[in-house]
Fold these 2 entries.
Entry 1:
Amino acid sequence: VENEYYKLQSEKESNARSYPRKFPLIIKKAKGTIITDTDGKQYYDCLAGAGTLALGHNHEVVTEAIKDVLEQQLPLHTLDLATPLKIEFMQEIFSILPEELKDSAKIQFCGPTGADGVEAAIKLVKTATKGKSILAFHGGYHGSTQATMAMSGNLSKKQHLQSLLPDVHFLPFPYEYRCPFGVGGEQTSQISAHYIEHLLDDCESGIAAPCGVIVETVQGEGGSVPAAIQWLKELRRITAERGIPLIIDEVQTGIGRTGKMFSFEHADIVPDVIVCSKAIGGSLPMSVVIYKEELDKWNPGAHTGTFRGNQMGMATGLATLKYMKEHDVLENVKDRSNQFFEYLNGLKHKYEVIGDVRGRGLMIGVEIVNPSGRKDQLGHYPQFGELTAHIQERCFANGLIIEVGGRRSAVLRFLPPLTISALETAKVLDIFEKSVKEAVE
Ligand code: PMP
């Protein structure tokens, strides 16, 4: 890219930068699902701030909320002190909680990132249970701080570091397509649940007094891998019976992404702790932990932090939640999800390189495989990261921004705004097919 801004970024920004390597554009403006670069080229944005932009870019209720804060001279920063806005935002969040939590749950505002929320959740359950170890899942992702990385089951991101947090035990996630037990389908989930239960009851298993289990109901960075509904129910039963707090990381799945406000609602379960970030701030940085009252064993001031009072984020978050309710955005998620799945499943039959299409709501993954590789015990070809990168690059050239994740970076991940229209979805899918075709030719 010849652009001077891009050159400056490449020269001056950390080598750890990620997205700019795949999407070498300089964004000038953005509205809804569309990003426009400094050359005037437009892109459909199916990354949407890694799932942050529930209503897309610059939705008018979000920009109006920002203007309102400024016009009324509301304080921009108050630490964790109260404001009418904060109270209203809290009430709005409580109104979308399951009945069981509506009256009794506690909320804690944390630092601005998802990782801040996850860190707080772990401290919370450690304080409440005095347990030591944390149970997490293979392929899971919880952040980039030391503790959240320790709980993320992706070695490639952390194996070069020395020890992070010693007491994490990884459990098998019910990844039905690449089944860790070699059975696949529904049986994957049954065996996984049985295995977890056995492990927790086996006093010689090496798991010391867990303080909690942390799980994503759909692994996001892990490749949009949904856990079966029955498995989630089983996990809730197993943890409840043993008094182990169940922490659901809703950082990516939360606030409508999967077609329900909270993704655990699909399984009709209620976790002990919910971590929210991304969409809950309505485009701006925010994270909160919501938890059952009995876990509130903090001492006063036990978990502090300067930026727990992002007032602007509360205004945009409140506006987003209200809009979602009033305009039944969840209905759109369901309709668009069906549209995506119908088309992508069609592509699966057309292109041998598409091994699996999966996800929930508007959190969708397409796993790319190598038909000249050796099949695994389930009869699936191996992951094909190189081709996935090539398809991503063709998508970009054709005007579609789409993220890659999963093992061997072989999953193309759709995370569009929840307000994406039927027409935009059709266009996105059109570009996607064109790009797959170009990449395999
Ligand atoms: N948990 C999950 C499930 C996530 O997807 C992410 C971010 N992709 C995080 C935690 C960490 O959030 P952040 O990047 O804001 O720290």
Entry 2:
Amino acid sequence: MTKHEFKAESKRLLDMMIHSIYSQKEIFLRELISNSSDAIDKIYYKALTDDSLQFDKENYYIKVTVNKDTRTLTISDTGIGMTEEELENNLGIIAKSGSLAFKTENEAKDGHDIIGQFGVGFYSSFMVADVVTVITKPFGSDVAFKWESEGADGYTIETTEKEAIGTEITLKIKENTEEENYDEYLDDYQLQSIIKKYSDFIRYPIKMDVTESRPKEGSEGEFEQIQEEKVINRMVPIWRKNKSELTDQDYEQFYQEKRYGFDQPLKHLHISVDGAIRYNAILFIPERTPFDYYTKEYEKGLELYSNGVLIMNKCGDLLPDYYGFVKGLVDSEDLSLNISREILQHDRQLKLIAKNIKNKITSQLKTMLENEREKYEQFYEAFGKQLKYGVYSDFGANKDDLQDLLLFYSSKEQKLVTLDEYVSRMPEDQKYIYYASGESYDRIAKMPQTELVQDKGYEILYFIDEIDEFAIKMLMNYKEKEFKSVASGDLGIEDENNKEAEETTAEHKELFEHMKQVLSGKVKDVKVSTRLKTHPVCLSAQGDVTIEMEKILKAMPD
Ligand code: ADP
Ligand code: MG
């Protein structure tokens, strides 16, 4: 029996890959630039151990050049280059990654900034190009090589001339078709925006010759076209900078640049975690509720970067729904990516990061509540409802995180108070946390049901959001004090008049029976109550569901 090896049909494989791995053609530029960045990283690592090599940051860069006449786009770098063998292995074999090998070999030297790993990114250039030409001169060699391919039919390699060490990749951009506009990959402006979108934080400068029209000197109203070499990328991401180097304005400007909202951020969090999980994040709590926040269109999520390269625009898994208003981004070097460089759906690392982020937001909000009450109330005005939904959802699983962040209007203080504030000033004989539901604070204040509780000098929380009572039902109690609606049948208040009331009810049994008959189907019982002081009559609830809740439940679609 002989064992045969599978041979990949590279022509078909290439086709398949080009058309199925990547959902957007523009990412070819991200892939080529990432490769260039890796190549510069490699020469940098080499310089760490090779005394003959100086790594002078100024001399290392990536350049993107366009030639509309020849329809070519060139990405060149001053990186480590490729030997003939490397050209064959790394560009000639699909799914072979020289960068992965480099990382594995250099593990001890901390090569985790290197981006490449799958050995397919390079081929994405065939999504937009008919011919790809690679001219490269490897470090330590006098000869340069030219690799050329039209994609499916294989490639050629020959020696050639190149002065400096590094690689130059030229794409012959495809002609436009009816479905696809390829011209945009020859357009300065488009290219700049693609670079900014995906590669803004590549650590080496990405240069381009950009034509700009400027007012002509010494003449009025006249403009001249000036071509200038510009660095397109920001390089050092703000989240990798030290907090102490950054001002509030820096964060605000970033918020605006990223178009996280039209408002100002109310608070920012700059997180750098370096332990079992490693990530950097910048998060913002907006000042105002986004206009579409309570609609289906609103999509929660944070931007997700892997090593400074954008992977996902809105990663919803990073935020629980109740913190869905948080904006910002996360950058981690530990994510497991799939072959098209998307995050794996059930990445363990991502889950850990999400949990960590959730805790950071919770403690940030607690700090704000403690130290900047006014600001917190502004926040609560915008997003408090979301926190209450958070308490209610998932069967109360998040209540420990959220209960101390809740605010309710207090009859006593005439302002918003926390549950802790309420409980800490409860008189000793008070057993429950009392609340009253209604349409507005004014209306609740006039409710007859509140009279006895008020009279006892107990504080009442006013619930005017529909969600309030549902959330509180999910909490059940706070610091071992149960919640009780002022409209519930038994208020749990010791009252010497209680007995008298029972006697009166018994005495006038017939009268009450008659009232019950008249109101039959509308009320369950009619009796004398001690809770009223100035009002003659009121409604109260019997079970757990109060009248307000019943109204809401009735209004819900079945
Ligand atoms: P990956 O980057 O995931 O390894 P690619 O298909 O993007 O896969 O690239 C394959 C390999 O080709 C890289 O690992 C690297 O060894 C080599 N390579 C690609 N571009 C360059 C470049 N500009 N300079 C040096 N080597 C490169
Ligand atoms: Mg790559």
